[in-house]
Amino acid sequence: MCGIAGFVGAGAEEDLRRMVGAVARRGPDDTGFWRDARTSVSLGHSRLSILDIEGGHQPMESADGALVIVFNGEIYNFAELRSELASRGHVFRTDHSDTEVLLNGYREWGAGLPARCNGMWAFVIYDRARRRLFGSRDRFGKKPLFYFSRSGTFAFGSELSAIRAHPAAPSGLSRRSLKKYFGYGYIPAPGTILEGVYKLPGGCSLTVELDDPALGARVERYWDLVLEPFAGSEIPADPEQAWGEEIRSRLDAAVRRRLVADVPVGVFLSGGVDSSAIAALASRHVPAGRLETFSIGFEEASFDESAHALRVARLFGTNHHVETLSMAKAAGLLGEIAGKLDEPMGDSSLLPSYLLSQFTRRHVKVALGGDAGDELFAGYDPFVALRKAELYSRLVPRPVHRAICMVAARMPVSHSYMSFDFRLKRTLRGLSHPPRLWLPVWMATLGVSELEELFREPVDLEDVFSEAIAAWEGCRQADVMDRTLQFYVKLYLQDDILVKVDRATMMHGLEARAPFLDIDFVDFVRRIPSSWKYRRGQTKYILKKALEPLLPRDVLYRRKQGFGVPVGAWFKDGSLDLNPAAPVGDLNTAFIQAKLAEHRAGRSDQRAFLWNTWLLQAWCGAGAAPTPAPG
């Protein structure tokens, strides 16, 4: 895994070195720079050496010097692509570098290259003959790519920190993105917190023509998630057996591909269904007693899964490592994490993910995880609530609904993980809106009236949640379950879960791999009808059936536990506090302080909003907040 950066146009070698230095923690093993003074193209790279340690130095040039690449990621089918390219006459100088496979693959297939890759990536290729830059990001956006075009300069980087190191980079906060941040708790692609800086969305490529004076980026989508459920004669007589075998086979192949490395590889193990499945399958391909697994524990019982992880580790004979997160240690890490956070994102599980990555990196350079199992197989609480929500929405009159909301608001507040009062209040808030807004409002940091008070102006909720609406309405299937699956995979997975994992692991130079995102696996799973993913009141039904030959029933069917931390309790008891002297732009500080007072008095649960605000203040810097851009 690596950090990449570069630019075309204005800028000196010192600027390139600062940009690469900003992402050096992503690749602590090696650094490289390449410049073409004639065309003002500058490329830089910081490397975490995983494959072909001797031959994989970057930036890498093709044998004839016509192409130059900087690449962050892993191409899991590089051996198959290399064999195909060799049969077409391409010559390789490295022993087994997937970077060189991309160079020759671009020469052979041009913009068609990304569709042939199975892996995670963000890369930029300088094509000297065509005088263009071609960049791409993997299908789900597992690896990040930021960019801007401004005043005849185009610059890109693995993190916003690299972009900000360029002297021409925009610096004003995007007010629209701030609204989305306090709506979703994260900023969806293509937006960023900086006005005029963008994320390349997953499944997209970009092209920059050097002969274009503006150096504008043309973005094109090469892949999109399309749910096409099996129907009629396509459905086998015994779906549980037939689809179960296919799921196990494809997931096993995905795990096997992700164990390929020239450095030690381990597995993140929480003891939940997804990570336990990855550990079970990985143990088939690693000699007995050689598989390293890692988990995190919490002193607060409602957040702790370490005993479940230990049981699974013993079941498969792994060399298991566990670290317990104490309140004191967590508090001590917060400033460190905030100082390294590339862009504010309000998922509080970033904290345990950071600690897990930190101690995993002491043992291995690569770790496999269970990310995307919940999104692909309907594993979240809203899937349980959807049918009831549809019925409630049809039968309960608006005045009655408002009365129920008022009664629920008076329920005592609990700061336990996903407590009943927290889930009920969020569900009722969502049901105050049309179905296309249920999901984002259920998960939102603030309601619409609260957003308006925070920003002191009218807020268009459909603009705030435009990406969620697009995912909902862009689904080819009319069923609410399919629309919800599409929302989780296309939006929440890409812009929250995968961002969290990338930032937490890359802060320690650790590569995280996600077998559930293997494209061969996803291509099959996307065709399984949603009625088999959530079935008979059971989330992830078909996945759990598929895994019954691998995992005990009490692992498969115990109550789901998330990777959370008690930020609500921390704000209530003062372990976490907001700085009233650190305003962010022109947000309503009186509103912020009122929400903190409500939370501490136990009148309402404001954990998400307070955490998002704390992170934003920390990111901006106390007393030195950037000025919002207009609009």
Write a compact overview of the structure shown.
The protein has 26 helices and 19 strands. The chain is α/β, with parallel strands linked by helices and 631 residues long.
How is this fold's topology laid out?
Layout (H helix, E strand, L loop, with lengths): L1 E7 L4 H10 L7 E7 L4 E7 L12 E2 L5 E9 L2 H10 L10 H12 L3 H4 L2 E9 L4 E6 L8 E5 L2 E5 L2 H5 L8 E2 H10 L13 E2 L4 E6 L7 E5 L17 H20 L6 E4 L4 H13 L6 E7 L7 H10 L3 E7 L1 H14 L9 H11 L5 E3 L4 H5 L3 H15 L2 H12 L10 H11 L7 H6 L4 H8 L5 H4 L1 H8 L6 H27 L4 E3 L5 H7 L15 H7 L5 H4 L10 H7 L15 H13 L5 H14 L7 E2 L2
Parallel strand pairs: 10-19, 14-15, 14-17, 15-16, 17-18
Antiparallel strand pairs: 1-3, 1-9, 2-3, 4-5, 5-6, 6-7, 7-12, 8-9, 8-11, 12-13
Helix pairs in contact: 2-3, 7-8, 7-21, 7-22, 10-11, 11-20, 14-15, 19-20, 24-25, 24-26, 25-26
Provide an overview of this structure.
This protein is of the alpha/beta class and 631 residues long. It has 26 helices and 19 strands. The protein has 3 domains: 2-221, Glutamine Phosphoribosylpyrophosphate, subunit 1, domain 1; 232-378 and 497-556, 3-Layer(aba) Sandwich (Rossmann fold); 566-631, no CATH class. The strands form 4 sheets. A 6-stranded antiparallel β-sheet has the order 2-3-1-9-8-11. The longest helix has 27 residues, at 480-506. The radius of gyration is 24 Å and the shape is globular. Mean pLDDT is 88; it is low at 622-631.
